[in-house]
From TrEMBL:
PROSITE patterns: NUDIX. GO terms for molecular function: 8-oxo-7,8-dihydrodeoxyguanosine triphosphate pyrophosphatase activity; 8-oxo-7,8-dihydroguanosine triphosphate pyrophosphatase activity; 8-oxo-dGDP phosphatase activity; 8-oxo-GDP phosphatase activity; metal ion binding. SUPFAM superfamilies: Nudix. Its EC number is 3.6.1.55. PANTHER family: 8-OXO-DGTP DIPHOSPHATASE (PTHR47707), NUDIX HYDROLASE FAMILY PROTEIN (PTHR47707:SF1). It comes from the Bacteria. It catalyses: 8-oxo-dGTP + H2O = 8-oxo-dGMP + diphosphate + H(+). GO terms for biological process: DNA repair; DNA replication. This is 8-oxo-dGTP diphosphatase. Keywords: DNA damage, DNA repair, DNA replication, Hydrolase, Magnesium, Metal-binding, Mutator protein. Residues 7-132 form the Nudix hydrolase domain.
Length: 136
């Protein structure tokens, strides 16, 4: 397990809430895992902290500035083409208006609506944790 994580691509994503709903984004049709749903984010570039990468990715993909807060969860997932180590941050929008700059669609959903959407496999563990948190 350690060797897979060592070779994993570092990826960050944002769990952005608006009252009882959180933001999900549908991947574009021309990318890997086309049209699946995910949390906004992307790869950490060389020399960037995870927080800096999250701020950059949200600007590039949504046109908003976010404030990364605590880490909600970290997940390592192996796809056929790559292994990702995903750090999901709780985050809030501090400036800007949401725009679909890269995604096919954006939705605000509740945890009760999760099963209506097809998510990227790396997000399944995160979604289960969200559902369990709300089941308490």
């Amino acid at each position: 397990m350690k060797s897979r994580t060592a070779n994993a691509v570092e990826v960050v994503a944002a769990l952005i809430w608006d009252r009882d709903r959180f933001l999900i984004c549908q991947r574009p049709s021309h990318k890997a895992r086309a049209l699946l749903w995910e949390f906004v984010g992307g790869k950490v570039e060389r020399g960037e902290s995870k927080e800096q990468a999250l701020i950059r990715e949200c600007r590039e993909e949504l046109g908003v500035t976010v404030e990364p807060q605590t880490v909600f969860v970290e997940v390592t997932h192996t796809y056929p083409d790559l292994t990702v180590h995903l750090t999901l941050f709780n985050a809030r929008i501090v400036d800007g208006v949401l725009q679909k700059l890269e995604h096919n669609d954006l939705q605000w959903i509740t945890t009760a609506e999760i099963d209506r959407y097809s998510f990227c496999p790396a997000d399944i563990e995160i979604l289960q944790k969200l559902k369990a948190r709300d089941a308490r």
